[in-house]
Amino acid sequence: MSADRPRILPVGDAALTVEMGRALLPELNARVRALDEALRADPFSGLVESVPAYASLLCVYDPARTSFADARAALEQRLDAPAATPRPGSKHVVPVRYGGENGPDLGEVARARGLSEREVIQRHTATTYTALFVGFLPGFAYLGTVAAELETPRRAAPRPRVPAGSVAMAGRLTGVYPFASPGGWNLIGRTDRVFFDPFAAEPALLQPGDRVRFLASDLPVDADYPRTQPFPASMPVIEVVDGGLLTTVHAYTNSQKLQDMGAKDLRDARAAGQNIVPSETGAARAVGLVIPELKGRFGGMAFRVPTATVSVVDFTAVLTKEASKDDIRAAMLECAQGSMKGILDVTDEPLVSSDLRGTSFSSVYSAVDTLVVGNLVKVVAWYDNEWGYACRVADLAAPMGSRL
Prior knowledge:
By secondary structure, this protein is an alpha+beta fold. The chain is 21% helix and 29% strand.
């Protein structure tokens, strides 16, 4: 076996990895992407999915349909074939606001590399980067490789929160944080481009092999990377920064009591049809799971009220900047007509709970109930907690059923 022969190693009892090498070399990554594309076009029997990394490809297979030995043999046969060239990826231009509050580490990077901030920006925007693979966060593409004179180690102490859209560098790589999260890379700028939209047909903007150029507003870009105006405006206009509090006014549920009776939870012991009952809510915990950047900065409670169905959410939050009622309505309407169509609706009518019975939307934003004081905002949204939930279960079951 030659020294550069890829290694095929087991990963548990239902996966294996093909190691092309261990170095961060463009040619190794190209081989990984070529093999990944070949397997997607013509998978071997039992292959579930393939996941590319820097210089290796993880292949997950169904052990009920194939064995490690058979999967390895199928891959060795692919590797013995002449090396293919991966497809040319899509081109993307990413406009960046460099330095200042958008890139707090730009000055430190410049000093460490013996350059001016302007020179760092010029070198960072001069390179066409390849998306080597996507990982760490949904939609986070590892872009390589930066010019040698820009190579900078990760920060010694990671930040607990990096803002969404932050453009960063670490070692030979650069990338964009798709949403707020902890991170240890050096922040040199920020963009308004959206790199991950869970409601889009392709949630991640960048795919392995895509090519990316960063663009500062006062620097030119090559003609074959056309700058389209306006740049996509799917970055949320409103972002919660200092936390938020949610109150759900919820129809009573079948876990509550018909009459007052003894129970460990004294409030839960009271008759549901005769009281407004304060309670915990799982909604606040769930938000932290599906929107990680809000974890630990988002809390809430519920009031169970004596109605059969239809509930309402009252959410109060501190925003990054002041926003008017019209700004908030416009942002909601953009989502309702775009990425959250069929999930979110907007109403300007003075509705009450019975008007919402049977709505299939998960949330109906009530524009007339929005309150704004500076950057402190309260928004209200209705939902039918029975029928709306059933509709989302049906939405989930449909694609699952199609795969059976």
